[in-house]
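hi! just following up on the protien thing from before. the input was this:
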Amino acid sequence: MSRPRIKALLVAITVALSLSAGCRTAVRTAPIPPAIPPPPPPAVAPPQEATTLAHLGFTVQVGAFAVPANAQALAASLAATGLDAFYFPAEAGLYKVRFGNFASHDAAAREAERLKAEGTIDVYFIVGPADYAAARPGPPLAKSGDLRERLTATAESFIGIDYAWGGTTAESGFDCSGLVRAVYQLNGLAMPRSVGEQFAAGAQVPDGKPLKGDLVFFSAAPGGVRTHVGIYLGDGTFIHAPGSGKKVRRESFAASYYRSHYSGARAYLK
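and the predicted 3d structure came back as:
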């Protein structure tokens, strides 16, 4: 091959290579999308108040009575059918009734609808676990303080009425353990029914010094079986349903009777 022909071939190859290189630099790749951040971790529910008692499930609330005897009568009629019913003072001087401890909203609604169809109740409202003071969010210590305040405030709302859980007691109007149970259940804690069961469900109070909301127990005879219970308010006072013909009231440990018949205290909030 002649020298001019070889030179022309080399020039052609050089041009071809440069064009090929130019094509490579012109190639555009798809942009890489920015990294998708991982989803945030699920919110952690604030811890529930540590307690020796189970938290209440769903309950049914009915009625709005201006006369407490009417609320007591409805609670008694529900209790007669086997329902765990109690009445309590509500806002604006009204009294209402609650019954049951259901595992789900649907179970509570089914029972309420059954009673409504029978004509036993009319309008009703279902109270859920999140509605109670025991389930309110917040740091455990602050929440404990708030719950103790709520327990004592609820107890004080009963002052001045004759109280009987479900309207049925051996002595009309006298039901100390029923009063305690109502106060705790209105705040979302499933307190047992009898004085003995309530004592067993609690934890020993350190140094024998109760705090607000703890229960204080008494015996009919010093050192005997515990027969009476009240809710400690602080400052050496407590609230209880004292006996037949007497209304719920505040008492002082300074009274000689309560000093001599005192039989210990139990705590339900840790």
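Residues 9-30, 33-48 have pLDDT under 50 and may be disordered.
Residues 58-267 form a domain with the endopeptidase fold (from Nostoc punctiforme) fold (CATH 3.90.1720.10).
cheers
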